[in-house]
Specification:
The complex is a heterodimer. Chain A is of the alpha/beta class. Helices cover about 40% and strands about 15% of the residues of chain A. Chain A folds into two domains: about 200 residues, D-Maltodextrin-Binding Protein, domain 2; about 100 residues, Periplasmic binding protein-like II (D-Maltodextrin-Binding Protein, domain 2), CATH 3.40.190. The longest helix of chain A has 20 residues. Chain B has a domain of about 250 residues: MetI-like fold, CATH 1.10.3720.10. In chain B, a hairpin with a 2-residue loop joins β1 and β2. The chains are: A alpha/beta, B mainly alpha.
Chain lengths: ~350, ~400
């Protein structure tokens, strides 16, 4: 009984403290940099380039947020996290947001007390095998040894898929994508499974990408998106609407090339509201009126970011597929800026 | 304090707590304990406050939930619908397996290397010195990774052994039709139990009991009558019954060869000593073996040379001098440090995660922790597990140490 009183008192104290420390937006502004958790290195999504600068699809989202909040796309401190360490890094306050191919699931949202602020890539889990194995379907993988990144949703999907199809496999748990790549190439496992985008990115770095084939089966829904801590709605809104601004910009034809003048020259009121030449949307978020303009200037709109990092003209060569605008038959659908 | 002008009395005054050497010790201890309690209390309340702030409550309910993931080496029945608790037990058994295997092999290696390092043969002594110094002075994690990498790159893919249902001529055939060394580990035959296996098991147990009974009979005869019986009947008693039972019941135990025909990716059946297990077992054994070798050497050197000379003067051969005179005395010196080496092996086995071996740190402290997000609960359970195992090993070895230590009369 004493213990529960003790815990109850602590809960009250803790809640008071929680409210006081929730203002991540103010913290970021006063610090002057955004701490963004990214993956430890997945080419196209988040990896340092030859001159040591981080670049990629997820990296550009971090830069857009930094530009919207601080006006400077380079004011980002990138923190590499493994699948195992990412949530702890976010919960403990080490990073302000995570943008690292993280699947939005019910339990992560509710049980781990995280808040997903949208979806920036609709993905699904696939399999990669050496071409010489002559496998054409995942259903032929009975008895295969499978390399898998531990601590991910793919680990659970894999178990479900093989169980549902009543075939067996041998899991080889691995910590990072780089390690998995090495084990797979050394032949320690027959198959590597992760999100299809990750497989494409990994295969692009191989010496002979054509010796490896992605199987047609996509065994899960993997909506990847940025996430923040639970309970700080203002900060969550900043990330959510920065992503929506990038998506809307593509839909409205706002690009990094015309973002400077289209706010004045356009007659479309939504473009004017988005870019802050009309209305007070920036102030509602607690940001400058030109926040979205800054975000779009940083790396372009969603389509530009996609094409630059992972699009069909890059070594990774992903097509838009589900990640096209809803007007083009995809799933990208930003709520209106009104 | 008010009685300063009074004549000194023997009664207790508060200032004596500080100035009287009889009580000062207690005062200091009390203050230190108070600080320790306050510090621990602060850390615990900080933990609970932070947990409350994040809206997290400590609970072990998740252990009942289905784990949802698969494990590549399971000693007990397990599938991905089993509970997190069962996954933890699978991990715990894997930890105990590799720790037990490594303790045995490290002891054997250590005793041999320790004795041989004292050999009069220059080459043997120097080789053992090189072994000890090389392995003792490189971190065990490096050895684990080295062995893992060597197995991965030296071993061939299991596919070269496969016949794919008889449709393909394999590039390699199994060694003796039973063994295959691949980059996934070592495939060895398993033993199938037919009818009558219980009889064979009982015969084996009977052989062991008979062996010890015979030994005590030989000892008794030696001490009472001074006549030493030959050694061979002991081995006959040990192996006779089990061989007889296997001849009489031919179907009781069968050898199941690894199956290269039924699958397109891996060898089936048989027992796979997986690459992670091999890497962890060998690395822990040779690393800790080097430490044990030094313990053994120290133990032997602690016995005065006069003992050896006296035994030699009595006409004992060198082997018997070691077994009957030196080692029994040296054990008293060897066993206490040996305990801590066994504890080190058990604790170092948590490095399993580096090569994907499914020990308890990988299941409970790795995948379960990740998938449930219950970090504090999982880590507390892990600490409890390692603490229990370590204290149990300590207790068992202390019992053994008490039985061999110098009896003071």
């Amino acid at each position: 009984m004493n213990k529960s009183v003790f815990l109850g008192a602590l809960t009250v104290v803790g809640m008071a403290a929680g409210v006081a420390s929730a203002a991540t937006l103010d913290d970021v502004k006063s610090r002057g940099t955004l701490n963004c958790g990214v993956s430890t290195g997945l080419v196209g999504f988040a990896a340092p380039n030859t001159s040591g600068e981080w670049e990629g699809f997820d990296v550009d989202l971090c830069r857009a947020v930094a530009a919207a909040v601080l006006g400077d796309p380079t004011a980002v401190e990138f923190v590499p996290t493994t699948p195992k360490t990412r949530f702890t890094a976010l919960s403990s306050g080490e990073v302000d947001m995570l943008a690292r191919n993280t699947t939005w699931t019910f339990s992560r949202d509710n049980d781990l007390k995280l808040e997903f602020t949208g979806i920036n890539y609709y993905d699904g889990q696939g399999f990669m095998v050496p071409t010489e194995l002559g496998v054409s379907s995942a259903k032929d993988l009975d008895g295969a040894t499978v390399c898998i990144q531990t601590g991910t949703t793919t680990e659970l999907n894999l178990a479900d898929y093989f169980r549902a199809n009543n075939i067996s496999y041998e899991p080889v748990p691995i910590e990072t994508n780089a390690e998995a790549q090495q084990q797979y190439l050394a032949g320690a496992c027959d198959v590597y499974t992760t999100d299809a985008s990750g497989l494409a990115a990994t295969r692009a770095t191989f010496e002979n990408p054509d010796d490896h084939v992605l199987l047609p089966e996509i065994i899960s829904k993997e909506p990847l998106g940025p996430l923040v801590r639970h309970g700080d709605n203002e900060w969550g809104d900043v990330i959510r609407w920065t992503l929506n601004a990038l998506i809307s910009a593509e839909e409205l034809g706002v690009t990094s090339a015309n973002v400077g003048e289209i706010g004045e020259s356009s007659n479309n009121p939504e473009i004017k509201r988005l870019l802050g030449t009309e209305g007070e949307l920036g102030a509602m978020l607690g940001l400058d009126p030109n926040w979205a303009q800054q975000a779009i200037t940083a790396g372009g709109n969603y389509g530009e970011i996609f094409e630059k990092n992972i699009g069909e003209n890059t070594p990774i060569g992903l097509s838009r597929g589900l990640n096209a605008q809803w007007t083009d038959g995809g799933l990208l659908y930003s709520p209106p800026f009104r | 304090m008010t009685a300063m002008s009074d004549a000194p009395t023997q009664s207790f005054r508060l200032s004596m707590l500080l100035y009287d050497t009889r009580y000062r010790g207690y005062t200091i201890q009390f203050i230190v304990i108070l600080f320790v309690v306050l510090a621990v209390g602060y850390l615990v309340s900080n933990l609970f406050a932070n947990l409350a702030e994040q809206g997290v409550v400590l609970t072990y309910d998740f252990l009942e939930q289905p784990a949802g993931y698969d494990i590549n080496q399971t000693l007990i029945e397990y599938n991905n619908q089993s509970s997190h608790l069962r996954a933890s037990v699978v991990g715990a058994l894997n930890t105990l397996l590799v720790a037990a295997m490594a303790c045995v092999l490290a002891t054997i290696l250590g005793v041999f290397a320790g004795i041989l390092r004292l050999s009069n043969n220059w080459l043997v002594a120097k080789l053992m010195a090189i072994y000890v110094e090389a392995f003792r002075n490189v971190p065990v994690l490096i050895w684990i990774i080295i062995i893992n990498t060597v197995v991965t790159s030296v071993g061939s893919s299991p596919r070269v052994f496969l016949t794919r249902g008889g449709s393909v001529e394999p590039e390699s055939s199994l060694f003796l039709g039973m063994f295959a060394f691949t980059n996934r580990g070592l495939y060895i035959p398993s033993i199938g139990l037919g009818s009558g296996w219980l009889v064979v098991l009982l015969a084996f147990v009977a052989g062991i009991l008979g062996f010890f009974a015979w030994r005590s009979y030989v000892k008794k005869k030696l001490f009472q009558e001074g006549s030493l019986l030959p050694a061979w009947p002991a081995w006959a008693i040990l192996f006779g019954p089990v061989i007889l039972a296997m001849v009489l019941l031919p179907g009781a135990l069968t050898i199941l060869r690894p199956d290269v025909a039924s699958n397109n990716f891996n060898i089936q059946d048989g027992v796979l000593l997986g690459r992670p297990l091999l890497a962890l077992w060998l690395a822990l054994s040779i690393y800790t073996g080097a430490f044990i070798a030094e313990n053994v050497r120290a133990g032997i050197l602690a016995i005065s040379k006069g003992q050896t000379e006296a035994a030699a003067a009595l006409g004992l051969r060198p082997g018997r001098i070691m077994n009957l005179v030196i080692l029994p005395q040296a054990l008293r010196v060897i066993i206490p440090p040996l305990i801590s080496q066994y504890l080190n092996i058990t604790k170092n086995s948590s490095l399993a995660i580096a090569v994907g071996y499914a020990d308890i740190t990988a299941t409970l402290g790795g995948i379960t922790l990740n998938q449930t997000g219950r970090a504090i609960e999982c880590v507390l359970l892990l600490m409890l597990f390692y603490l229990t195992i370590s204290l149990s090993i300590s207790a068992l070895m202390n019992v053994y140490n008490n039985s061999v230590r110098l009896k003071e009369r």
